[in-house]
Amino acid sequence: MQSYLLQDFTTIRGSTITPVIQSEASYLAFSGYQDMLFWIDLREISPPGAGNVTLAIETAPSKDEVFWTPMTTQVFAVGAAVGLVLGPSLPSVILARGPTQPLMTWVRWKLTASVAATWDITFRIILSANKVSKTDGPGSLSPESCGCHANNSDSSMGSAAPLRAQHASYSQVRQRSPTGG
Questions:
Q1: Residues 19-56: pLDDT tens digits?
Q2: Whether domain 2-128 has CATH 3.30.750
Q3: Whether pTM exceeds 0.70
Q4: Domain map of the chain by residue range?
C-alpha cells in the first residue's frame, strides 16, 4: 500500500447545511487501485448546536458532480474525541469485502452539517491505497498496462503526469502539489 495526503490540516467553518466540498484542484486520482484505508485526524470540532457534522469520502469515475458517491462517512458530534478518530472502525473500502461503493478513479471529501447553526472542524485525511496487482496469467495488470499512462486530452479526467507519479514507490506520505504534479 502507498500513502497519500488527501487533505493537510485545515479548519472549515460554516453556518448552513450547504455542503463544503474539497477544492477540485486537490482531488486525487487512483486509476489502477482497488482498496483504500483512511486515517481521519480530527483536532477540533464545534458542532452546530445539538447537531453534527458528517465527513464523507467520495469517489467518481470523472469530476462531473453528478457522479460523486460516498465510499465511507464519519459523523462528528458533541463529545467527539480529539486526535485520531477511529470511530467503531477505521474507515476503509476493500474490494474483496464487497463495499457498498467501490473505488472509482477520483477521490475527494465533503462536509455536511445536520442543522443550520455555526460550526467548525479542524482535520486532515491520510489514506493508503492498494494497487491492483494481478501479476500472472491472462489479463495481468501492470503500471504500464493499466491505461493511466495514456495521454488523455479530456481535461475532466486530469493529465497523465499526475497519474504517472502515483506508480512511484513512496515510503512517506505524498502530498500533491497545487499544480497537480
A1: 999 999 999 999 989 888 888 888 888 888 888 999 99
A2: no
A3: no
A4: 2-128
